[in-house]
Amino acid sequence: MSELVKITIDDREIEARAGEKLLWTALENDIYIPHLCAIKDEKRPNASCRLCFVEIEGVDHPVTACTRKVEEGMVVKTRSPHLDRLVKTGFELLLSDHDLKCAKCAANKSCALQTIAKERGLKLRQKRFKLIERDYKIDDSPAEFAYNRSRCVLCGQCVWADREEAKVGAIGFTQRGVNRAVTTFEDIPLADSICTECHLCVDACPVGALYYKSDLK
Amino acid sequence: MQLMEGEKEQILSCVDEVLSNSTKEKEDLIPILQKVQAKLGYLPVLAMEKIAEGTDVPAADVYGLATFYNQFRLNPPGDHEVKVCLGTACYMVGGDITLESFERRMEIKEGETTSDRRYSLERVACVGCCTMAPVVVVDDEVEGKVTPTRVDGIMLELEGKSDKSDAKDSSNGSKNTGNKDDSDKEEGERI
């Protein structure tokens, strides 16, 4: 699968490994595509954040870059009015139930949402969708870190770290629809669960949902 | 939910039996949960833990599955089961207010069971008699036009009934014919 092919992204010719996912090829070549849920080693990506849309010549609808494999001669566009609109909508939906008190957040200035907003010129607030205010209790039971569900974007990075890196299985996706959340078994505090407090999930969190207490100013 | 006397043994033997008759593969998880719920009436925490152990699936995932699908319930059915319809028609005429009234009266949230297991409260999506909205199903009997005042009435009636067997006896009598007659009567009154 390491056969090298030539593809074009945003009018730039790029040499890429065939079979690799488009998103990682673009990122390696300093072409930014917004993404939250993509995990490089994951065989079947979730493609759930709906932010990494690109247009490919010959494909009549936008596709998610995290699921599309690189092929010889591919011509890819990462920006167009249609794509920008799609990404903006996805981004605004994420913000519609996100606790946007950035100044009080441990991930301020290192948050993936802020990066996306900056790269795409989007605002960190939205008025299109009804705001769903969350008042989940912050789980600060672990010694070094805490979990604020109101800031979770459901990207699944922490669940992946918990399962594939730490091999613990303390957290997982529960509930459905707007109530979907990452929780422990029976929603108990992390310290009471089988969590080993290895904090790999905290390192994986792209936003300020799982954060080190020491990072909180 | 506090387990009742002897319930722990019942749960353990039930889970053992279901697991011994299945492949214990991840793909079999939903059928396992269905069979356990069919026997116990709900999925107790203990059962989910044992199923997670038996199938080698993280307990958090078993919990995720059980909370994802509407068919699984995590609380035991109460002696009196109240189902509040929040289908389109019922929602539009204030089904959510009816639900809130029950929640206040029973001092539980939707999907829960009172600690004495006397009442359980659920929301359903359309019972099929939208002309009677907002509709509530109390122990298999359909009640139409349930205002908060009527909620008080229903609760008083239920408090009058002593236990499960009584409730089932009285509802069984009218079960076959009762529902239809009731709705016909409602229709008739309005016309």
Describe the protein.
The complex is a heterodimer of chains A (217) and B (191). Chain A is an alpha+beta fold and 217 residues long. Chain A is built from five helices and nine strands, in the order ββαβββααβαββαβ. Chain A has two domains: 4-79, Ubiquitin-like (UB roll) (Roll); 92-215, 2-Layer Sandwich (Alpha-Beta Plaits), CATH 3.30.70. Chain A is globular, with a radius of gyration of 18 Å. The termini of chain A are far apart. The relative contact order of chain A is 0.13. Chain B has a four-stranded mixed sheet with strand order 2-1-3-4. In chain B, strand 3 and strand 4 form a beta hairpin. The interface between A and B is medium-sized, with 14 and 13 residues.
By secondary-structure content and strand pairing, the structural class of chain A works out as: alpha+beta
The counted number of beta strands of chain B is: 4
Largest sheet composition of chain A: 5 strands, mixed
Name the CATH architecture of the largest domain in chain B. 3-Layer(aba) Sandwich
- The tally of domains of chain A stands at 2
Q: What's the mean pLDDT score of chain A?
A: 94
As a percent range, the share of strand residues of chain B is 5-15%
| CATH architectural designation of the largest domain in chain A | 2-Layer Sandwich
Kindly provide the radius of gyration of chain A, computed on alpha-carbon positions and rounded to a whole number of angstroms: 18 Å
| Principal-axis shape of chain B | elongated
Number of helical segments of chain A? Answer: 5
**Which stretches of chain A are low in confidence, meaning pLDDT under 50 for 5 or more residues running?**
none
